[in-house]
Design brief:
The protein has 193 residues and is mainly beta. It has one domain (25-190): Immunoglobulin-like (Sandwich). It contains 1 helix and 13 strands; from the N terminus they run H-E-E-E-E-E-E-E-E-E-E-E-E-E. It has one helix spanning 3-18; strands at residues 27-30, 34-37, 42-49, 52-60, 62-64, 67-76, 81-90, 99-102, 115-119, 127-132, 142-150, 158-168, 176-186. Strands 2, 3, 4, 5, 6, 8 and 11 form a 7-stranded antiparallel beta sheet that branches. A hairpin with a 7-residue loop joins strand 12 and strand 13.
Length: 193
């Protein structure tokens, strides 16, 4: 076999092998997760691609003395890394934010804590919580994130959370993902407080 034929065959195999892979630097958006849960206060989003589970974002909420406690758990497929987490929290009928605080230390075993920013962006609903620079937490199930929510006096008892998780696919040919979903949780004990 001559060199040109060999190189032509090798290039053809490489093109076929990478068909369907995302372009480098472009994240694949998954925005239609399955919403499941054991109750109206304990729900999770399940994100899949090509029949494979990529990640889940879950919360197990409860009300203590008028404050809604929201411990989160974020699981993601082996080989992927969490780059950023953004949560937007609000309670209808108002789009104004409820008062939100990060209650749990979102840090790993040996690294400094990640960057956490709380804001109320113009033109968007609710309070935004952004977590970046996760260091040694990036490759683990994240179960140390907890929020405390003090409902607005006009709140009807439904708490909405828009969750966005950015995942690094873990390799040159692996897909990066942007996961978007909404959880609606019911807290009738927190209505009109």
């Amino acid at each position: 076999m001559d060199r040109r034929t060999f190189l032509g065959l090798t290039a053809s195999v490489g093109v076929v092998a990478t068909a369907g892979c995302s372009a480098p630097g472009k994240a694949r958006t998954l925005s239609d997760p399955t919403v499941d849960g054991e109750s109206s206060q304990r729900k999770y989003l399940s994100f899949t691609a090509d029949g494979e589970e990529i990640a889940t974002v879950g919360v197990d909420g409860r009300v203590d003395d008028g404050t809604i406690r929201l411990p989160f758990e974020i699981w993601h497929r082996d080989g992927t890394l969490v780059e950023a987490i953004t949560l937007r929290v609000w309670m209808p009928p108002r789009d104004a934010p409820a008062t939100v605080a990060v209650a749990s230390p979102v840090s790993g075993d040996s690294s400094p804590p990640p960057e956490v920013a709380l804001s109320v962006p113009d033109g968007e609903r609710g309070q935004r919580v952004e977590i970046t620079d996760l260091d040694d937490l990036a490759d683990e199930t994240i179960s140390t994130l907890g929020l405390l929510v003090d409902p607005h006096p006009e709140a009807e008892g439904t708490l909405s959370i828009d969750a966005t998780v950015e995942l690094d696919g873990g390799g040159v040919l692996a897909s990066d993902y942007r996961l978007d979903g909404r959880l609606n949780l019911d807290f009738p004990d927190a209505a009109g407080r």
